[in-house]
Amino acid sequence: MAVGEASFPHMPAIDGVRLGAAMAGIKKPNRRDLVVIEIPEGASVAATFTRNAFCAAPVHVAKAHLTQTPPRYLLINTGNANAGTGSRGIADAERCCSALASLAGVDPQQVLPFSTGVIGETLPVEKIAAGLPQALTQLDGAQWAEAAEGILTTDTRVKGATAQVELSGGTVTLNGISKGSGMIKPNMATMLGFVACDAEIPAATLSQWLRDSVAVSFNAITVDSDTSTNDACTLIATGRGPQVVSAEDERRFRAALTQVLTELAQAIIRDAEGATKFVTLEVEEAASVEEAREVAFTVAHSPLVKTALYASDANWGRILAAVGRAPVEALDVERIVIDLGDVRLVEHGGRAESYTEAAGSRVMAQAEITIRIRLGRGEARATVWTSDLSHDYVSINADYRS
Amino acid sequence: MAVGEASFPHMPAIDGVRLGAAMAGIKKPNRRDLVVIEIPEGASVAATFTRNAFCAAPVHVAKAHLTQTPPRYLLINTGNANAGTGSRGIADAERCCSALASLAGVDPQQVLPFSTGVIGETLPVEKIAAGLPQALTQLDGAQWAEAAEGILTTDTRVKGATAQVELSGGTVTLNGISKGSGMIKPNMATMLGFVACDAEIPAATLSQWLRDSVAVSFNAITVDSDTSTNDACTLIATGRGPQVVSAEDERRFRAALTQVLTELAQAIIRDAEGATKFVTLEVEEAASVEEAREVAFTVAHSPLVKTALYASDANWGRILAAVGRAPVEALDVERIVIDLGDVRLVEHGGRAESYTEAAGSRVMAQAEITIRIRLGRGEARATVWTSDLSHDYVSINADYRS
């Protein structure tokens, strides 16, 4: 199941960026499970990674390689996360990088590895190495959809977003793909996201802009509160297009970047495991952004709120109870206002006088629902997107390995 | 569904404590939904309450009454939580206290009200008042099982625990009952717990001992991470039995109190909504108790761990990922050891060499499972009990109001 439309956008080629996917039979036969992304020489590359302490071997290796030399290739496999695999996992990730490096004629440190799939199983390095020639043969600037398909696991949809933005020096194109459906509560990044553009931006600046945009996009979604061991988001700026020269250029570029990342993040929620609802939580009038996020995530993680959303039951008491248990000091319930879509649910510490069950049910029946919570404590705000908790979520996750 | 044995223990009468239940038709006809507990004059009473900011009207009233005068009656209704009901809810709770007080010949402040059930609906004060004479007629020291039944909501079992402890001045009896099945992540107390004993203990001391015991019993369980608006645990010491005179007396009494509260808390987990597994999380070698609890609750709340438990799938990678995302600074995964029952799952940052899928599956197939996590950071430890996440949990909570 998934919520909303599912079309994959047309993505213009970005000069110098080529993508290729292969069927390497890593976990299942006859599906794209191996992707190579080629980055032109001179590009800037930034990345954010999971904060899970048990971060996967490829995360360790990608972080290390990124500090050594500008990357020329991204190597992504699905079907195996190479996480919880100890020192063996690190060696396996390095071997994959070396295999690609020798085929492509670059240094192993110029390859960043990414893996996603089941945790704790040994990476099938031979299958990956055997699939690389096919992926390299496919390399083409028009293979975004194939690459988007090749990074999926339990996802039911390919996920892509694109934008063009006019800077003073010309048009910049941004293309991005992402994957993710469960174990989604990114912390610095989503499961996997890859974005490229043709702007010319120094790596340090690119890294800061990526972090800022990730904070309000990938780091503002949750399916099930579980942060993956393999989360990573990578941003390439080829430098073959315009520079960002003015404050207005910067504003425009960063807005476009945030837009692309937000579309990719929202696509993950729309395709969340078992999802029947796409839910936007807007928390306003908080004392700090951190506080606003705490309240939003507490509601977004509440199994009772999520099952009520699944049932299309306007059980506003569960929303109220979740807000009330959020880790916020001295919350004054008298000042809290909660709206469900255009319907006032809660004010003055209890149910709004104007509220009717019929009005609440009308909103809850919709596939896309906004819950707006005003705390009456300040000016800060945060938005978080989440899904509901359905029978399909339990089925998918009770059966995943079997 | 529920896990393990379900017998209600024989509870010796506690002199001066009488209980009575009535069918007041608060939400459904023909079920006990109203309970009165009579407390003898001169007794000490202590209570802990939810920390949910949206705490229910009866919690406000009970807290206020408790500061004014020693209580003589506890008045408990199910079918309606009187939460999210604003100032009207406060007035309604007070009216119920007044109704009982005038029938029993005490002051309204000598009645503590407790409510549990659906949030946000107006309390049916007339039904409660009309049921009180029946409850008072039933008052008897042997009505613990009937009272335990009368406080249930979505529970499938009555929950009771009893203990006797020899002090230097004679035998002390402790009896307790509890309710709770969903919206269970108590914070200072469970949904509802009522415990009485015949020891003579000053109220301030009783309050401290209750808090300490609640911390390792009711505050160490979670079904779904949702803290109720109505949690409360009340402890009565009639003073008609022995005093606690020595350090050894104190040690014995507090151990018995913790035992009774732990049995009542565990009974809630065994009867958790949709539960098929009773899971003990033991976190050891933490830098602090708080840190140990954080790790235990992170694992206990993980939907992916909970669905793997439901599936009896030894998907240890999900346990590892949950430990890795716990809010603990500078966790060194190399030092972490995770055992599932008697099977070593994780060591040296990955799967234990000795681990086999067959061994993991053997433990996962059991109804009662212990997950032991050693962090290698210190001497502190904590134990938390939880349940799995099943299709029945979703069904129960997607259908609760319909």
UniProtKB/TrEMBL annotation, chains A, B:
Catalytic activity of the protein: N(2)-acetyl-L-ornithine + L-glutamate = N-acetyl-L-glutamate + L-ornithine; L-glutamate + acetyl-CoA = N-acetyl-L-glutamate + CoA + H(+)
Active site residues per record: T190 (nucleophile)
Pathway(s) the chain acts in: Amino-acid biosynthesis; L-arginine biosynthesis; L-ornithine and N-acetyl-L-glutamate from L-glutamate and N(2)-acetyl-L-ornithine (cyclic): step 1/1; Amino-acid biosynthesis; L-arginine biosynthesis; N(2)-acetyl-L-ornithine from L-glutamate: step 1/4
Binding site for substrate: T153, K179, T190, E273, N397, S402
SUPFAM superfamilies linked: DmpA/ArgJ-like (SSF56266)
Family matches, as PANTHER family: ARGININE BIOSYNTHESIS BIFUNCTIONAL PROTEIN ARGJ, ARGININE BIOSYNTHESIS BIFUNCTIONAL PROTEIN ARGJ, MITOCHONDRIAL
Function summary: Catalyzes two activities which are involved in the cyclic version of arginine biosynthesis: the synthesis of N-acetylglutamate from glutamate and acetyl-CoA as the acetyl donor, and of ornithine by transacetylation between N(2)-acetylornithine and glutamate.
The protein, known as: Arginine biosynthesis bifunctional protein ArgJ
Lineage: Bacteria, Pseudomonadati, Pseudomonadota, Gammaproteobacteria, Oceanospirillales
Gene responsible for this protein: argJ
